[in-house]
Design brief:
By secondary structure, the chain is α+β, with helices and mostly antiparallel strands. The protein contains ten helices and eleven strands. Strands 1, 2, 3, 4, 5, 6, 7, 8, 9, 10 and 11 form an eleven-stranded antiparallel β-sheet that branches.
Length: 314
């Protein structure tokens, strides 16, 4: 989608209900109550060849009555809270949640959500709008197909990424478009592991290796927390801190990547046999998980790669 070239700046307090609706692209309604704001549109020609890119980003200081509602919007957004807090309401969560300063919020496409300042009564934040043909597959593979809060990220690293996009805003060239794609890919990699580098305790490293070497059998959170000598809640929190994901998501990702390898290297095995080798008693559940992770069924994955290879040989 192409936007008009404009920059919004304001050094005064504003209050203005405003509705912005894009044809066939859902609805965005903004109640403006802010101290200042600035909107950056990056260079995007009519024919966009980059597979991922940041379309625009917005820096703003919301005041108490600010409110933003999005519905059926086909692009994802990243919200970074610099100061204050952000209150988030969405049907995915039973109750509203608070995104505190130094944390990120990921909102996937189509997701209906309402944002407003948190208990502090204000929110200084940055919003980025992303696009690109590769985004849907990346979201499914990395658990970003639902709203996610990423707490206490590496702020310095994220601010450096923002500075790259700010510099690209000033360069309306084809080279800037290519650099936008590269910077956006680094942003996606950052979102997968957004926390400051910490020395990982030996017991959690051993636990990760246990998961890696036991993909063929059931592994419960109770068993893993027993090995780590901590509670289940503490285990999940520590895995998120050190590895960027909870144990069950790490286990599922390892299983799905192993399953893809087995499907290609062992064509004589049935789907049920492949499922058993990666810890699934039910082939149906395995197939559903595989499709959610890789974007297609195990059978189509195997047949598609095989057919592609055969075509190259011919």
């Amino acid at each position: 989608m192409q936007y008009p070239r404009k920059t919004i700046t304001a050094d005064r307090e504003e209050f203005l209900p405003e509705t912005v609706t894009h044809q066939e692209a859902g609805e965005q309604r903004l109640t403006v109550h802010r101290r200042n704001s600035r909107l950056y549109y990056l260079y995007l020609p009519p024919e966009i060849r980059e597979m991922v890119y940041v379309e625009n980003f917005f820096e703003t200081h919301w005041l108490k009555r600010a409110r933003f509602h999005r519905r059926n919007v086909p692009w994802p957004s990243v919200e970074f809270v610099r100061e204050g807090a952000l209150r988030v309401e969405t049907r995915e969560w039973e109750t509203p949640r608070i995104v505190h300063a130094g944390s990120l919020l990921w909102i996937p496409p189509v997701c209906e959500a309402t944002l407003s300042p948190g208990p502090e009564g204000f929110c200084r934040k940055v919003s980025l709008t992303l696009g690109g043909a590769l985004l849907p597959a990346w979201q499914r593979a990395n658990g970003f197909d639902r709203c996610r809060i990423l707490p206490e990220i590496d702020r310095k690293e994220f601010e450096l990424l923002l500075e790259e996009f700010r510099l690209l805003y000033e360069q309306q060239t084809e080279q800037a478009l290519r650099e936008n794609g590269v910077a956006t890919w680094r942003l996606l990699q950052f979102l997968q592991s957004p926390y400051p580098v910490r020395e990982i305790p030996e017991r959690f490293l051993k636990l990760r290796e246990k998961i890696r070497h036991n993909l063929h059998r059931p592994l419960t959170l109770a068993e893993l927390s027993h090995d780590a000598q901590c509670t289940k809640i503490h285990l999940v929190r520590e895995f998120r801190k050190y590895f960027g994901e909870p144990p069950h998501r790490m286990l599922r990702g390892m299983r799905m990547r192993l399953a893809a390898t087995i499907l290609l290297q062992r064509p004589e095995l049935s789907i049920k046999e492949v499922a058993a080798q990666v810890g699934y008693e039910s082939a149906l559940i395995f197939s559903s998980e595989f499709k959610r992770y890789h974007g297609e069924s195990p059978r189509n994955f195997r047949n598609g790669v095989t057919a592609s290879a055969a075509g190259r040989e011919v």
